[in-house]
Amino acid sequence: MSRETHSADTIGHVFARKAKTWLKEEVMVATAYVERTSDGAYDGIAPDAAWRDEVLELARKQDAVILAHNYQLPEIQDIAHHTGDSLALSRIAAASDASTIVFCGVHFMAETAKILAPHKTVLIPDERAGCSLADSITGEQLRAWKAEHPGAVVVSYVNTTAEVKAETDICCTSSNAVDVVRSIPADREVLFLPDQFLGAHVKRETGRDNLHIWAGECHVHAGINGPELAERAAANPDADLFIHPECGCATSALYLAGEGTVPAEKVKILSTGDMITAARRTSAKSVLVATEIGMLHQLRRAAPEIDFRAVNDRASCRYMKMITPAALLRCLREGKDEVFVDLETAKRAQGAVQRMIEIGQPGGGE
């Protein structure tokens, strides 16, 4: 598996040449030159009408569909053809008639799209956009863990690299992780990875003693803590609580409900996709949201009459925010950065994803 961007290969030259030709033919006015800052970020482009027109026209000319994750910058979410969680977007990528997928998210998400649509060109606007959770376990580490527990069933959260998925028996999402683990015979050991907080949620729900949990975490979700949640809940007693199971505060939320500090019906442990559904159904006037702050944009669009507030206003993923307006424009102008997954790895990883789908409806992705 390679993350290299083949800047000198044929694909890059073709995209660049076509983009220049189309710009001349359509007499399109470029919004500006894309700049690279000292830390490597793509900048220098304002997300104005000219930017929007050029992005959409280039996407049309290049037969590309733009997908944006719920944690992306609002201007990226708004220009995308589709917005959602990573698994839902990967399914769209596989089903789309477009020959090119522009995935505005982090690298493992673009890899998953490539796994499900191996014949398509998959681009990510900035290949540096990694994921602390996906990077918390490598294929080599998983193989060593499996050797310590021969015969164990490996259940991997969809937020993992293609290499890790290829070593996995069944993938899961945050909304179906409990069902996936329950589908495994009770006498089989289970290795659950990589998120320790989602693993704790699954163990709590299943009561399974032979569930071993990898000590990985999303640095953003882990930073949303219990005391912070308790303080915000006390200050907003009428608010619903939408808690992502990757959060460090998920256990605290359930504790508050168990103690009667917060009514149990107000505490909802939800994937990002399920948060949108819950937002449309709740009768609450306000909701406290424990996940990456980019999610607030989609929630406010889904239910503009509700006051959605972040439990932690600083819960912003710097990797997600690497996909800037300039990065997206550069991606479409130059055909960079392309995502590659070798066919054997993709085939093995696809099997783990397919088994997840066969067990039950995965619902929201992460």
Strand and helix layout:
Blueprint: H1 10-25, E1 35-36, E2 42-43, H2 49-61, E3 64-69, H3 74-79, E4 82-84, H4 86-95, E5 100-104, H5 107-116, E6 121-123, H6 139-148, E7 153-157, H7 162-166, E8 170-172, H8 177-182, E9 190-193, H9 196-206, E10 211-213, H10 219-222, H11 226-235, E11 240-243, H12 250-259, E12 267-269, H13 272-281, E13 286-290, H14 295-302, E14 307-310, H15 325-334, H16 343-359
Parallel strand pairs: 3-4, 3-5, 5-6, 7-8, 7-9, 9-10, 11-12, 11-13, 13-14
Antiparallel strand pairs: 1-2
Given as residue ranges, the uncertain stretches (5+ residues, pLDDT < 50) are 1-14, 17-29
Measured on Cα atoms, how large is the radius of gyration? 21 Å
Helix and strand run: HEEHEHEHEHEHEHEHEHEHHEHEHEHEHH
- The average pLDDT value, as a whole number, equals 88
| Count of structural domains | 3
Distance between the termini: 23 Å
Globally, the shape reads globular
Give me the number of helical elements.
16
Assign the CATH topology of the largest domain.
Rossmann fold
- Please give the CATH architecture of the largest domain: 3-Layer(aba) Sandwich
The CATH superfamily of the largest domain is known as NadA-like
Helix content: 40-55%
Beta percentage is 5-15%
Judged by helices, strands and strand pairing, the structural class is alpha/beta
Question: What is the CATH class of the largest domain?
Answer: Alpha Beta
Pathway: Cofactor biosynthesis; NAD(+) biosynthesis; quinolinate from iminoaspartate: step 1/1
Protein name: Quinolinate synthase
Enzyme class: transferase
Keywords: 4Fe-4S, Cytoplasm, Iron, Iron-sulfur, Metal-binding, Pyridine nucleotide biosynthesis, Transferase
